[in-house]
Each structure stands twice: as structure tokens, then as C-alpha cells.
């Protein structure tokens, strides 16, 4: 019987050994697997964290962009409302020289909005003209485009003339121009005679009759500019003398009344600026038509 039991016992022991070795091998394999996957998991976690951070920054940028668009929309709406109120109040139509400060500010703001629209349309027309020239369009098509540009310039002369009624100093200062353009401003614009000098060099060879016409136009422009410059100098001198005469002791009511009268006279002389501006726009429009 011992012989019969011994093989059975040996077989069971071998089976137990195999099971024990299998069970002991499982944690080792698991540890080995965990050790090899750990760097990979760390890389994945870092990548996920980076993706989350990038997504967060993207959301912040998108939110800031949307807020900027909303702010710009609100500013544009406000400008539109200011322009509408200015038109309803008749700031550009009124010819009264005694404008309040608020109306003057609204007039300048309305002009800036109108000028921005005019400039945008002007750039579009110039681009259209350049495209037509590049595509060798016919003379008839080019004439239509050029006539449209000239008519568009008539609009800006009208807009500036109306704005001078509301705030002539805003037009003279040229704050609606770029800094480089303001360096060449004269009476709120450019000297037409100087522009003709620049233009003639850019034109193709002209006939003798065309050269004579341009020279005559340049001479007449120079004469008109000299007359306007002399008028401005006389106005400044007269204004300075009027203000100088108003200085002095103002203790009595008579002196105060005299001072107020002289200041009213000075303000009346400042109204001449509008006439100068209108004369300048008129000269420029004549040169453009020529």
C-alpha cells in the first residue's frame, strides 16, 4: 500500500509546487508590468495636463476676443447714436456762431464718423480704379470710375464745409488726419499748388496745351493761397490787438462791460475763420474739377 500511496502523494506535491510557483509568479509579473507602464502613464498624464492647460488658455483667449468684439460693437453703436442725435439737432445745418460746448463736441464727433466712412469709400474707389487700370479697361469705363471719384471728393468738401460751422478749430487742427499728414496741413488741408507739383511728375508726357493749363492752374492756386495766408495773418494780428486792448484793471462795472464787448468783437472776428475755410474748400474743388 505504501507503494500505491507514494506516487499519488508525489503527484499531489508536484501539483502543489506548480500552483505555488504560479501564484508566486503572478505578483512579480504584475510588479514588472507596473514598473514598465509607470513612465508611460506619467507621460500620458503630463500630455493630458498640457492639453487641459492649452484648452483653458484657448477658452480665455476666445472669451477675451468675444469681449473685445462686444466692446467694439457697443462703441460703434454709441457713435451711431451720437451721429443720429447730431443730425437731429441740426448741428451741421445751423449757421449760428454761438454754439454751446456740447454741440461743438458732438459736431466734431459727427464729422469724424462721416470722414471715416468717406475715407473707407475713397479707398474702395481707388482700389477699383487701380484694378481697372491693371486690367487695361477701356476709356469709357475709366471715365466713369474717375467721375465717381471726383464726385466723391465733392462730398468731402461739403462735409468739411458743414463741419466748419459746428467747430472750425477741429477742422483747422487736423486731428482727424494722421500725424504725417498734419505736418503738411494748411488751413485744415494741403496746398493745392504743392499737390500740383507732386502730381505733374507722376503724369505721362503731356502736350504743350496741357502743360500750359497746369501752369496756369498752379499760378492761380498760388495767388489764392497767398491771399488766404495774408488774410489769416491780418486776422491773427487784429485778434491779438483786440485781446490786448481788453487787458487791464476790471474793478469797475464799466471796465467789465468794455471787456465783454471787446471779447464779443474778438469772437466775431474768429467767425472769419469759417469764411477762410470755405474759400479754401472752394479753391480746392475748382482745382479738382479742372
Automatic annotation (TrEMBL):
Its main location: nucleus. Residues 1-42 are annotated as: Disordered. Residues 22-34 have a biased composition (Polar residues). GO terms for biological process: DNA-templated transcription. Residues 1-12 have a biased composition (Low complexity). One of its GO terms (cellular component) is nucleus. Residues 41-85 form the BZIP domain. It is found in: Nucleus. This is Transcription factor HBP-1b(C38)-like isoform X3.
